[in-house]
Design a protein that fits this description.
Helix content: 25-40%
CATH superfamily: Vaccinia Virus protein VP39
Strand content: 15-25%
Order of helices and strands: HHEHEHEEHEHHHEHHE
Structural class: alpha/beta
Distance between the termini: 35 Å
Largest sheet: 7 strands, mixed
Number of strands: 7
CATH architecture: 3-Layer(aba) Sandwich
Radius of gyration: 18 Å
Number of domains: 1
Length: about 270
């Protein structure tokens, strides 16, 4: 699919997901009598329940790491969460910045923004706002944020170079990002690569790990560190919707792998 078609596919899928609960995401159903597809959108997610600021209503299980764990967010920081969804990472980040700081959540899905704002209204937080925008064209000023975070979203963007360029642009000099994302090692089986729901499920849109890290370097970031890496195993019953039994076995025998990484890097003091 072309880039705009991919964006619409992702937008439609996450509009559906926003209208259902985490448990419904795990059963791959849309909160109605019809099922969306056979992709479990929570297979990459980590456990947030012990983190301060955790809001169960905001946790749809759509992340692939805990970027706030390594983001080094300080009191008074201005933080931007890209692809903020129902607000999960924003609520956690808000406890770090305190009353002196602010967290901005950016999402391009209306239903997610509505869900996030409803979740915010139930809390006592007054240092969070949610705005609509595209990661390839962030509608926020240059040099605005101390920290950018994102959780399993950059892999959904067709033009990842443009997205990282935008992250660089909105960060203050010496600001940094901390992103959890999905990357690949080895050749993605054709059946997975061609599936739209695998794109929305953070698989077919993922870059090779080396290419992903090189994309970050090309935008001018420095001091890049991978804090955490874990392999993701997609269950056979999900793979069987896209691959034959022989293709599944071939994939398992090859060097192909899907990984979640949490990486951060810094915008230099001067370009």
């Amino acid at each position: 699919m072309k880039a705009e078609e991919l964006k619409l596919s992702v937008k439609d899928k996450y509009e559906e997901i926003a209208l259902q609960s985490k448990s419904q995401n795990q059963s791959s159903c849309c909160g109605s009598s019809d099922c969306c597809d056979d992709m479990d959108y929570t297979i990459f997610s980590d456990d947030y329940t012990m983190l301060e600021g955790y809001n169960p209503d905001a946790n749809l299980g759509l992340g692939c790491g805990l970027p706030t764990e390594y983001a080094e967010i300080k009191k008074g920081d201005l933080v931007l969460d890209l692809g903020s969804g129902a607000g999960n990472d924003c609520f956690v980040a808000s406890t770090f910045v305190g009353a002196e700081g602010k967290v901005t959540g950016l999402d391009f899905t209306d239903a997610m923004l509505e869900k996030a704002r409803k979740n915010l209204a139930k809390t006592g937080f007054n240092n969070i706002e949610f705005v609509k925008g595209d990661l390839e064209n962030i509608p926020l000023p240059d040099n605005s944020f101390d920290v950018v975070i994102s959780n399993c979203v950059l892999n959904l963007v067709p033009d990842k170079e443009k997205a990282f360029y935008e992250i660089y642009r909105v960060l203050k000099p010496q600001g940094h990002f901390c992103i959890s994302d999905v990357v690949l090692e080895g050749i993605l089986p054709f059946g997975l690569k061609e599936a739209a729901e695998m794109y929305a499920g953070c698989v077919s849109g993922a870059l090779q790990k080396e290419d992903y890290l090189e994309t970050i370097k090309k935008q001018g970031f420095s001091n890049m560190i991978i804090h955490k890496e874990k392999q993701i195993i997609i269950p056979n019953d999900i793979l069987a919707n896209y691959l034959s039994a022989e293709e599944i076995e071939d994939a398992k025998q090859s060097n192909f792998g899907i990984f979640s990484i949490t990486v951060n890097a810094t915008k230099p003091l001067s370009d």
